[in-house]
Amino acid sequence: MKSHFSAKFFEGNRARLRELFTGTAPIVITANGLLQRGGDSSYAFSQDANFWYLTGIDEPDITLVMDRDKEYLIVPPRDASRQAFDGAIDDQALTKRSGIPLIYETEDGWKQLGSRIKKVKHVAVIAASPSYIERYGLYANPARARLLETIRSHNEAVELLDLGMHLVQMRMIKQPAELAAIQEAIDITSAAVRAATTPAKLAKYAYEYELEADVARGFRARGASGHAFEPIVAAGERACTLHNVANDGPLEANQLVVIDVGAEVEHYAADITRTICLGKPSRRQRAVHEAVQEVQKFAYDLLKPGVLMAEYEKQIEMYMGEKLRTLGLIKTIDHDSVRAYYPHATSHFLGLNVHDAGDYTQPLQPGMVITVEPGIYIPDEGIGVRIEDDVLITETGIEILTDALRRTLD
After folding, report:
1. Which of 142, 166, 269, 409 is disulfide-compatible with 354, CB 3.0–4.6 A?
2. For the chain, first and last CA: distance in Å?
3. Is the pLDDT higher at 315 or at 80?
4. pTM, entire model
5. 363 Cβ contact partners less than 8 Å away, ≥ 6 residues apart
6. Has residue 84 got a pLDDT over 70?
7. Which residue from 225, 253, 228, 249 is spatially nearest to 237, judged by alpha carbons?
């Protein structure tokens, strides 16, 4: 499959970062490292999105240095044993992909960089996350923290400047190559879901994981690298747990099933949710599904350049409240009442990560890609409905990138 990205894309991103930064300090950015799964085996490698955005490189433990008019990569050596298991690193391939001609092994590279760090007051980096991110219950990849320790080992007094928000500003506005990759991921996702949810196939699935497996097969068969995030296939009451990724429950006649999946193409994600019925939907199921569709249409009408996400979310919350009241779920429209049945935001940025880098305090601008995903969850009735589409903010409004996949319940 031909890549959407050439070395010029990554060279351009590095040039734009220099323009935004404006300083003269060395810029030093690390790739992610491998994470232990158990014993001597690792989890599948996932590259740091910012490092990939600047280099296009998918190898671990590499360091990017941008210093004055010079750019180079510091690449760790691999002994014969490591090469036998993981393969050798091809310097020519790294240069072809990134557009960076200078490559040093660790000792020579850090000798050069360390000498420079000793002479400067500032080094520009991407700040490390806390080792444990309590809000999400996640342990952070330690590569950034390790890089900062190494920098300080060469100069304890050096001040570290965080480039994080510069990269957020860059990544929010998608370039043509990025939009092409996102659209391909969307098209693959749509085709795979459509193929996996024909009446004939739905009649054969006994468990959620069978449907999940068929979607995954469709992704790979159509050229995606796999899932952009852990897939969700949740039926009945299980669909009321937003990130129910076990996908091991039985599928029963006349249940609603939430399918929240997205293919990944060259690191770029699709994120689509459809809710379908395994049989003939009841009047109540139809009413809830129609309410969610109406909230989504309301959200579409609000979206355009200049909109502030916080105000947009407030308007949707009030409109959702009207729908919940009509359904007999709440009596008064207030935040707590609405969030009892609609506990998540409507939109998030989409791109290199499924929940992509973005500044939610800034007004929407052309070139941004966001999701629109209202939902209603009623555990007592075993009904969970979510509909999610991906949209591009244009000069005049929006383009719905996922319109090819039907939103019907049956």
Report:
1. 269
2. 34
3. 315
4. 0.96
5. 305, 306, 307, 308
6. no
7. 249
Pair 233, 262: CB distance under 8 Å: no
CA angle centred on 47, ends 43 and 53, rounded to 5°? 170
Q: Give 155-167 pLDDT, tens digit per residue.
A: 999 999 999 999 9
Percent share of the chain, pLDDT over 90: 94
pLDDT tens digits, 85-95: 667 788 999 99
Q: What is the mean pLDDT of residues 213-223?
A: 98
Q: CA 32, CA 408: separation in Å to the nearest integer?
A: 41
Query: Are the CB atoms for 278 and 255 separated by under 8 Å?
Result: yes
What residue ranges define each of the domains in the chain, with the CATH number in brackets? 7-168 (3.40.350.10), 173-400 (3.90.230.10)
Residue 229, amino acid: F
Alpha carbons 73 and 103: distance in angstroms, whole number: 5
Which amino acid appears at position 343 of this protein?
A: P
Please say whether the dihedral angle defined by the alpha carbons of residues 167, 168, 173 and 176, taken in this order, is positive or negative: positive
- As given in the structure block, the two tokens for residue 99 are 């557009």
Structure tokens at 167: 């990269």
180 token code pair: 């092409």
Name residue 261's beta-bridge partners: 272
C-alpha distances in Å from residue 182, one per residue of 175, 352, 385: 11, 9, 25
